[in-house]
Write a structure and sequence with these properties.
There is one protein chain. By secondary structure, the protein is mainly alpha-helical. The chain folds into 2 domains: 198 residues, Preprotein translocase SecY subunit; 178 residues, SecY subunit domain (Preprotein translocase SecY subunit, Orthogonal Bundle), CATH 1.10.3370.10. It has 18 helices and 5 strands. The strands form 2 sheets. Strands 4-1-5 form a 3-stranded antiparallel β-sheet. The protein has a two-stranded antiparallel sheet with strand order 2-3. A hairpin with a 6-residue loop joins strand 2 and strand 3. Helix 10 packs across helix 18. The longest helix is centred in the C-terminal third of the chain and has 34 residues. The two termini are 31 Å apart.
Length: 445
């Protein structure tokens, strides 16, 4: 504990890092305050029906967790940052097939800025579809007509759509400011803070259920917390595990010196889970499709749709796990360019011991990547369906969401990235990072 406190003191001594952290915390507070502002014209005291529907519907509950409860509050931030995430995914996938986007990806910083601008405009396009869908669905989600104080006329629709669109754009701006002026990873931090915002309430619901209903009491709560910590450790392993591929660089002659410099030996780190949480997001997007069958008039088709409507059901999770494994291979293939890696190695004078440069190197990297993606994708699928398993063990659905899936992996991944950002600042100022002992290092002259 003393070492941890010493590290916090070292962080506070660095003015630049201190200011970045304070700016990040301030902007995150602004985001959370904005999420509490209900859309004008809706009575906040009559939102119990919407909140109960969100709790009862597993998928809506997951969406509500991503927005930090703003979805169930009918807030101006009800759509959160998710439309921007959807736009980013679409642009990334389009980059595979659209030559213009491929060209922009090769133009460095200027190309990145243009891609970001395209993503912003696409976000507005998605909002023009999602905002009216959300407003039109509010009565069906449990908000009574009496809650609409000014009715549901054109003025209400226009103002609500405008505010929902503005809310997401404001969230985008906050995320970009955190990235530029704060500690970094702005969009990811906003998603994480939204997820964490619902954690205390869901945990208290689980405690209440266990204690008041004599359903295991505090002993079961203790066991659940221990299990949760074990799952977090497993998630950290999945996020950080890499397969190191040894790289040897050819001997080089130093200018003006007769001696040769021995080739340096380095590594190419191939992640066990190179695709992150994207396979889960893609799979969840497709899992909405079978549920549309539940409204069919054909009894057979309707029964199939109902079977896939339960997020914690058997058939839902079997298909969900298979899709995650498939998308893990797909996303890894499009984001890890083994051919480009092999060409870059060849140009820089690097080679893999025992492997010829060029095509054989690319094939070898592709083979290794395929082999480590299989256990990584299976591990990812198990974490994704773990909430369904713990629900069958008696855990409340709201609390079960934090036992795996997108929520837990996002929290773990963002937390690790943030710690790495802080560590880099500390090491630049000759301090050990949060993962180290917390003692000062000697300055190197």
């Amino acid at each position: 504990m003393k070492k941890f406190i010493s590290t916090i003191q070292d962080i506070w001594k660095i003015e630049e890092l201190r200011n970045k952290i304070l700016i990040t915390l301030g902007l995150m507070v602004v985001y959370r305050l904005a999420a509490q502002v209900t859309l004008p014209g809706i009575d906040p005291s009559q939102l119990a029906g919407l909140q109960n529907t969100t709790k009862d519907n597993n998928l809506l509950g997951l969406l509500n967790a991503f927005t930090g409860g703003a979805f169930a509050q009918a807030s101006v931030m009800a759509l959160g940052i998710m439309p921007y995430i959807s736009a980013s995914i679409v642009v990334q996938l389009m980059g595979i097939a659209v030559p213009y986007l491929q060209k922009l990806q090769k133009e460095g910083e200027s190309g990145r800025k243009k891609i970001n601008q395209i993503t912003r405009w696409l976000t507005i396009g998605i909002l023009l579809l999602q905002a009216p869908a959300y407003i039109g669905g509010l009565p069906a989600l449990g908000i009574p007509q009496s809650a609409f104080l000014l009715g549901t006329g054109p003025m209400f629709w226009f103002s609500s759509m405008l505010l929902l669109t503005t809310g997401t754009i404001f969230a985008m701006w906050l995320g970009e400011r955190i990235t530029d002026k704060g500690i970094g990873n702005g969009i990811s931090l906003l998603i994480m803070i939204g997820i964490i915002a619902t954690l205390p309430s869901t945990f208290m619901q689980e405690v209440t259920s266990r204690v008041t209903q004599s359903n295991g009491g505090f002993l079961m709560i203790f066991i659940e917390v221990i299990m949760w910590l074990v799952v977090i450790l497993a998630s950290v392993f999945l996020v950080t595990a890499v397969r190191k591929i040894a790289v040897q660089y050819a001997r080089r002659t130093v200018a003006g010196n007769i001696k040769d410099v021995a080739g340096a030996r380095q590594y190419i780190p191939l992640k066990l889970n190179s695709s992150g949480v994207m396979p889960i997001i893609f799979a969840q997007a497709l899992m909405f499709v079978p549920q549309l069958l539940s409204s069919s008039e054909n009894e057979t088709i309707k029964s199939i749709g109902i079977a896939f409507a339960d997020m914690f059901g058997l058939w839902y999770n079997i298909l969900f796990a298979v899709l995650i494994i498939i998308f893990s291979y797909f996303y890894t293939a499009i984001t890890i360019p083994t051919n480009k890696m092999a060409d870059d190695l060849k140009r820089s004078g690097g080679f893999l011991p025992g492997i010829r440069p060029g095509k054989e190197t690319a094939d070898y990297l592709d083979t290794v990547l395929s082999r480590i993606t299989l256990p990584g994708s299976i591990f990812l699928a198990l974490l994704a369906i773990l909430p369904a398993i713990v629900v069958k063990a008696g855990v409340q659905p709201g609390w079960a969401i934090f036992y795996g899936g997108t929520s837990l992996l996002i929290m773990v991944g963002v937390a690790i990235d943030t710690i790495q950002q802080i560590n880099s600042h500390l090491l630049n100022h000759h301090y050990d990072g949060l993962m180290k002992s917390g003692t000062k290092r000697k300055s190197v002259a």
